[in-house]
Write a structure and sequence with these properties.
With 140 residues, this protein is α+β, with helices and mostly antiparallel strands. It has helices spanning 2-9, 48-58, 81-90, 111-114, 121-129, and strands spanning 22-27, 30-35, 66-70, 96-100, 106-110. The protein has one domain (2-129): Cytidine Deaminase, domain 2 (3-Layer(aba) Sandwich), CATH 3.40.140. The mean pLDDT is 94. The structure holds zinc ion (ZN).
Length: 140
């Protein structure tokens, strides 16, 4: 999977950061790839990890079994906070994550280690079960 991530990294659109990243996720026994796609309107850029997840979901998968990321230069770069939350949506806490420099320096961890106490669907259900009582009618 790291090879797939390294391969797709070459397609990254990263003219602003000059920080190409490739990611691969394993879902349903298949590997889905994504690269970062930046935009001149910076907030519209999307990370490699989220694009790989989107490819898996678009193919009908809702469960990701492993994650691989290639980026950085001297040190392997872990997924950003936003991507950690997106991974937590489709991965279990024990889902393995490997992230590596292009030169092959690999770090291995899990989604749960990257994002302990992740917000999830269960939190929304609990919120619905105990809705907030919002005071109306202005100040008192
Ligand atoms: Zn990210």
């Amino acid at each position: 999977m790291l090879k797939a991530a390294a391969r797709v990294r070459k397609h990254a659109h990263a003219p602003y950061s000059d920080f190409p990243v490739g990611a691969a996720v394993l879902a349903g026994g298949k590997v889905f790839e994504g690269c970062n796609v930046e935009n001149s309107s910076f907030p519209l850029g999307v990370c490699a990890e989220r694009n790989a997840v989107a490819a898996a979901v678009a193919a009908g998968h809702k469960r990701i079994d492993a994650v691989a990321i290639v980026g950085g230069s001297l040190r392997p770069v872990p997924p950003c906070g936003g991507c950690r939350q997106v991974l937590a949506e489709f991965c279990g806490p024990d889902t393995p994550v490997a992230y590596s420099t292009p030169g092959g320096r690999v770090m291995r961890t899990t989604v749960g280690e990257l994002l302990p106490s992740a917000f999830g669907a269960g939190d929304l259900q609990l919120g619905r079960a105990a809705p907030l009582k919002i005071a109306r009618g202005g100040r008192r």
